[in-house]
Amino acid sequence: MLKNHLRQDLQWLRRQARKDRRITLTVLAMVSMAWVRQLAPGATPPASAPLLALSGGLLAFSAAGWLVAAFFVARAGRRRGREPVEVLRRAGRIARAKEWAFGSLAAYVAWHVLQFVTALLLA
Q1: Which of 5, 41, 68, 80 has the fewest CB atoms within 10 Å, measured from its CB?
Q2: What 3 state SS string does 38-69 have?
Q3: Gap between the Cα atoms of 106 and 87, Å rounded
Q4: Distance (Å, whole) CA 120 – CA 115
Q5: Is the pLDDT higher at 53 or at 97?
Q6: To the nearest 10°, the Cα dihedral for 18, 22, 23, 24?
Q7: Burial, 20: exposed, middle or buried (Cβ in 10 Å; 0-12, 13-18, 19+)?
Q8: d(CA 38, CA 62)
Q9: Distance CA 41, CA 95 (A)
Q10: pLDDT tens-digit readout, 66-94
Q11: Residue 99 — pLDDT band, cuts 50, 70, 90?
């Protein structure tokens, strides 16, 4: 009975890890495409030094979050471990990658809102 529950829980963890991995990779792809689009040549930098520093900090946090998320996804790899500990480790890494990917997305959104508000105030 207990062994059956453990097997079901591990199957659920594997399915959740696959789902979280797809979500993470999608968010990472979207953030990288958004940054490439926003930082294209011709984009105007903020006028004041504090806004420029804030923009740089948000960009740096987003880039760092993206890199950490990509690192955790890469560490999770495509290996399928059969041991319960390996399944837990993989699921944990993918969950951390998802958290960092959404942190990177949040920094991008904050940067985008900052640019919007700056444009409104300066216009």
Answers
A1: 41
A2: HCCCCCCCCCCHHHHHHHHHHHHHHHHHHHHH
A3: 29
A4: 9
A5: 97
A6: 100
A7: buried
A8: 13
A9: 35
A10: 999 999 999 887 666 678 888 888 899 99
A11: very high
Long-range CB contacts (within 8 A, 24+) of 48-51: 51/114, 51/118
Residue 51's φ and ψ, nearest 5 degrees, are: -65, -40
Write out the two tokens for 81: 């471990």
Buried b / exposed e over 63-83, threshold 16 CB at 10 Å, is bebbebbbebbeebeeeeeee
Task: Calculate what percentage of the chain has a pLDDT beyond 70.
Answer: 91
* Total-model pTM: 0.83
Q: Rg of the Cα trace of the chain?
A: 19
The per-residue pLDDT for 4 is: 85
